[in-house]
Q: What sequence folds into this?
């Protein structure tokens, strides 16, 4: 099973709400971003569904006007890892196969934070994903209901 093939430190840290920081090639920005694991069991599912955290709050709100229920704002008061007001657009989840994520993790291309997203924010992200008219149903089934 996948759990035997992945790095032991990754096995211990990888769960819904885990926070990682890395550069993702599928983003338009070459800068590293924070990512939140949003699927309920990424090791068993062998896939990471990741919400992208950005500090470009106004830009995201403008792009998704009319679907505010699919956005989750996070202030530094709510989660001190983020130093600025940030937002997750739950219409746009990144998918990375567990084996690829593991390889990047082992090469130290990915930083892990020893603090998970608080339960209240994880629930808000779940609700926003399930409210999205863009996220396919087969992806939503990998995310727990709030």
A:
């Amino acid at each position: 099973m996948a759990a035997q093939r992945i790095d032991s430190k990754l096995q211990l840290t990888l769960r819904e709400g885990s926070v990682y920081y890395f550069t993702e090639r599928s983003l338009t920005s070459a800068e590293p971003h924070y990512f939140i694991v949003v699927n309920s069991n990424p090791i068993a599912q062998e896939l990471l569904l990741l919400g992208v955290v950005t500090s470009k709050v106004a830009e995201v709100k403008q792009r998704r006007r009319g679907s505010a229920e699919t956005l989750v704002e996070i202030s530094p008061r709510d989660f001190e890892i983020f130093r600025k007001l940030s937002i997750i657009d739950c219409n746009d989840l990144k998918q990375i196969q567990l084996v690829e994520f593991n390889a990047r993790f082992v090469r130290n291309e990915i930083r892990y934070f020893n603090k998970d997203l608080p339960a209240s924010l994880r629930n808000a992200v779940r609700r926003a994903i399930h409210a999205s008219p863009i996220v396919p149903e087969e992806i939503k089934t990998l995310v727990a209901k709030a």
Q: What stands out?
A: The mean pLDDT is 93. The radius of gyration is 14 Å. Residues 119-131 form the longest helix (13 residues).
